[in-house]
Amino acid sequence: MKSLCSVSFHRPVLKHRLNWIENDSLLHEPKIKELRAALGPLSGRSLKYCADACLWRYLEARNWNVDKSKKMLEETLKWRSTYKPEEIRWHEVAVEGETGKVSRANFHDRHGRTVLILRPGKQNTTSLDNQLRHLVYLIENAILNLPEGQEQMAWLIDFTGWTLSTSVPIKSARDTINILQNHYPERLAIAFLYNPPRIFEAFWKIVKYFMDTKTFQKVKFVYPKNTDSVELMRSYFDEENLPTEFGGKAILEYNHEEFSKQMIQDDIKSANMWGFNDKVQSIGNGHCGSDVGVAPAAAS
Q1: What are the tens digits of pLDDT across the range 226-276?
Q2: How far apart are CA 189 and CA 150, in angstroms?
Q3: What is the enclosing helix (H) or strand (E) of 269?
Q4: 300: Cα separation from own chain's centroid
C-alpha cells in the first residue's frame, strides 16, 4: 500500500507537454508586451508574479483583450497584496488537512500536471475562512510543484461521504470559485467530479451560475457506470496511478504526518522563491512551528 505522500513524485516523460513558450511566444509576444507596458512599472513580489507566462494566462482568460486582462491582473495584485497567499505556512492550516480533505497527489496526469485530490466528505472544521486559506495554500503548493513548462493543474474530487450537511455554504462556494477564476486564471486544466450523489445536483444547480463559461467547461462529471465519462477521465490519468476511489488500481492512503513533512519542506522552497527567510521547525504530530523572519521585497 502506498502512502499518499510517502513516495517520490512521478514526472512522466511527456510527448505533448504544454510549453507555451515554444508554442505561442511568436504568436502572442506582441500582446504580452502590450499588457506589460499597460501595467506600468512593477516591483517586488508583483514584478516576480508577473512573468510572461502569467501575463499569457490573464490574456487567455480574457480572450486576449489587453484592457480586460490588465484590469483582471491588477485586481489579482491587489488581492495578493492583502491576502498574501505566498505567506501562508503549513502550520497555520495543518488542522484543516488532518483528514486529507485536500491534498496533493503523488502522481501527475498524462500531461504532467500537478493533481489535487479533494474529498469534501471529509470536512473536519467549521472555520470557513481557514478552510479557504487551506485550499489557497494547496493551490499555491500545486503551482510550486508544477513541472517546467507546465502551467496548469488537475483536480480529482471524491464524493464519498458527502452530504448536504458537510457541504460548504453557497457563499463559501462562490468565494472559492471567484478566487480560482479571478486570481488563478488558466491554472485549472480539468476537474473531475467522481460519482457525486444525486442530492449534489441541487447544490450544483446553484453553484454553476457563479462560474464563467471557461471554468464551467472544465468541470466533468464521472459516473462509474457511464463508460464515456470513465473513458474521458482515463484519457487524462494512467489507470495504474489513479486511486481506487476514482476507479483506478492504485491503493493510496493519506498520511498526515508524512504529508506535513512534505509541506514543511515546500514552505522552505516557497520562501526561497519569494525571497523570504523562513526558519521552519517540526514540532511533531504532523504540525510545525515557524520562526519567520520575513525579508521580502515590498509588495506592490
Answers
A1: 999 999 999 999 999 999 999 999 988 899 999 999 999 999 999 999 988
A2: 11
A3: helix 256-274
A4: 23
